Amino acid sequence: MPPGATTGRAASARRGTGAFTPADYDSRVTSPSLARRLGLGDAVAIGLGSMIGAGVFSVWAPAAAAAGPWLLAGLALAAVVAYGNATSSAQLAATYPTSGGTYAYGRAELGEWWGFAAGWCFVIGKLASAATMALTFAAYAAPAGWERPVAVVAVAVLVGVNLLGVTRTAALTKAIVVVSLLGLAVVTAAGASSSSTWAGLGSAAPVDAYGVLQSAGLLFFAFAGYARIATMGEEVRDPTRTIPRAITIAFAAALIVYTIVGTLTVVVLGASATAASSAPLADVVHAAGWTWANPVVRVSAAAASLGALLALVAGIGRTTLAMARERDLPAALAAIGARHRVPYRAELAVGVVVIGAVALVDLRGAIGFSSFGVLLYYLVANLAAFRQHGDARRYPRALQIIGAIGCLVLAVSLPWASVVAGAVVLAIGLAARGIRLRIDRARRAG
Predict the structure, then answer these.
(1) Which of 199, 230, 386, 422 could be 101's S-S partner, Cβ–Cβ 3.0 to 4.6 Å?
(2) Could you tell me the fold of the domain covering 8-445?
(3) For the whole prediction, is pTM greater than 0.90?
(4) Dist CA 272 CA 249 (whole Å)
(5) 139 vs 29: which has the higher pLDDT
(6) CA–CA distance from 412 to each of 27, 54, 132, 210, 418 (Å)?
(7) Domain residues of the chain, as ranges?
């Protein structure tokens, strides 16, 4: 049986102690296993590429529209919840160093249905994120009117890079992260040199608690990239040590970047202008009088979006692989290429779906929809980590309680359309699995 196939309390009793090793997981996979080729730097780059690209150029406007001048309070709340989730993911990944992330953890610690719910929420939510990142790239890189075709080409190219092997993915991600950080350094310097009166901070506007919660739910979208490290656990060398360290380092670095950039954006533009802006960081540079730097910001934004898209395709592909191994998705998607050792069918399927979404669907609400799915995904992670005991425990259970409660509160605080859409998609997935299990039982009985 593949990793995570043994579920529920029996699995928790046997595996939750951390007695299994990476070799045990590799030997239990029924299809060929992925190759362990990623080191600490590779894993950190993949996590950073996901987090920086996922939100720093796209999430400030909707978050400011929700929280107004209290945007930074929403960022702080999102960071607290994300930290609880990050520690849960690190603790679980050290025990279950396999593909699939919380899909595998949920199956092992809580049961098959919990694992399925987590995996389904991740795949559907992150498919929407991937399409959003492709269109964000095109918004910065494509001529007017050519955004969708350019986004389609970007998805196709990055799927091709992923098919060449995980080391190619990591190498390109490192280069993209460097370009993104250089651009953000320019934005930071411009914002710091601005003659702003700091009107964006210290506003006398009353606190809108619901607005702060809603902005935190949207900003959580920006921190969720460390999941990509966990979903690729089957490809990390010395995963018991490397994955927890990579998650911690990537989260801390992203938090520093988001705090600096978010503060300067609100300081220079003010909450109202931030909410109304389609490109807040470009507006920061313009407001500071650094008009020469606008092309730098556009290149940085395009690179960051590509980095997030590259990591998303890899992460969704590995979760799809794990679900296909358990027949929670079509078993044909579990195929692994003999040469490059990647889940090529899963990644091709991800590419087709994302291209379809980019070409045909209006994705303006995708950030909220993605946040809802990912918050439920991490709810399962916190519950699974809470059940661990013995040597598997690395962090206080209080962090898992904070993470779980935070996920629930932020999920229901999102825009109602995102909550309804996410709940409907989750219900469809659960119903489809129930039907598939009934068909399987009928076949066995017949």
Answers:
(1) 230
(2) Amino acid/polyamine transporter I (1.20.1740)
(3) no
(4) 33
(5) 139
(6) 41, 21, 22, 10, 9
(7) 8-445
